[in-house]
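Thread: sanity check for a docking pose with pyridoxal-5'-phosphate

Original post by kr_44:
Hi all, I'm comparing my docking run against an independent structure prediction. Below are the sequence and the ligand SMILES. Could someone generate the full complex and paste the structure tokens? I mainly care about where the ligand ends up relative to the chain.
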Amino acid sequence: MVDLQSQYKRLKSEIDDAMANVLEQTNFINGPAVKSFQSNLEEYLNVKHVIPCGNGTDALQIALMALDLQPGDEVITSTFTFIATVEVIALLKLKPVLVDVDPDTFTLIPEEIEKSITSKTQAIIPVHLFGQGAEMNAIMPIAQKYNLSVVEDTAQAIGCDYKFNSTITKLGTIGDIGCTSFFPSKNLGCFGDGGACFTNNDALAEKMRMIVNHGSKKKYYHQIIGINSRLDTLQAAILDTKLKHLDNFNQRRQKAASWYDQELKNIEDLQIPSKSSKSDHIFHQYTLKVKDGKRDELQSYLKENNIPSMVYYPVPLHEQEAFTEYQDKDISLANSETLSSEVLSLPMHTELTEEQLKDITTTIKRFFNHE
Ligand SMILES: *Cc1c(COP(=O)(O)O)cnc(C)c1O
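Reply from moderator J.T.:
Ran it for you. Here is the predicted complex with pyridoxal-5'-phosphate included:
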């Protein structure tokens, strides 16, 4: 699905130099590369504060901790996302309220958010799934109307432009806090775990900087309960190097996606990814919808032909065993349920060659007798 090796080989000398530098300095925790990456990312995203942390799941937890929510407060988010988004809500003794997604863009339906708001609702977490923005133009006014905080899950969409009202903005910088992950396979990935929160709000930034550092501003003086969540210096040095290439990484993904689109758009039983009118798409995943119950059969056929593919996500979160206590028994979030039986993601990364793409699309066409 991803080819981290070829990307490393292509950027080897730059990355090796950055890593060697850290090894020589042995400043492994909060070394100079962390500050450097932080300020370069602030500049890239055009956001006032970046708070690096240990991983994307921590970033979401840190964001929610900074919002001062009370046990039992409700947080509305998507049922069609990676588990991390919802896990942290439950871990903080808040109540996840899962909402259905648009069947074309796979992102939250603003009307469904509004319908789910109660007197206990405190926050919304829109997920910019697969590399495309949720409908922030509709979500932000709802948040304002009901005085709710917005935490953007930008783990799959770092660097993606969104036309917010009339301004082109980076996703993750529109709500109160944006969160991202630098997991190796993400669009900006390090060589281990990493994550960050972003905000334009000085008070939230100050609080998140304390939370990641055991609730402390001054060593051994702790004002609030925090956690230990840091981006290693080594990972920061790698990310600082790779950040310079992020736009190019995203363009390479878009180029591969255009190939897939062009070759697959005329197959009746396939639906290629829909494009939002407001958001760019940076293709963290290239996700097809396979109609007529042919998804699993197509996936097996690809496997026989040595082509990897993945189902993101096979079970919507409201149907996960871990979340049964949070859901009404007969809740039906029909779009997400249907999607989980239709979606199929194809290999997507920065190093896909024309030969590989051709092999993948010809195999798919052969399956549908569409040559
Ligand atoms: C990857 C991901 C996360 C979690 O990031 P980690 O760094 O793996 O903890 C959260 N949300 C979404 C949507 C993700 O894709």
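The pocket of pyridoxal-5'-phosphate is lined by residues 55-57, 81-82, 84-85, 127, 153, 155-156, 181, 183, 193, 195 (CB under 6 Å). Hope that helps with the comparison, let us know if your pose agrees.
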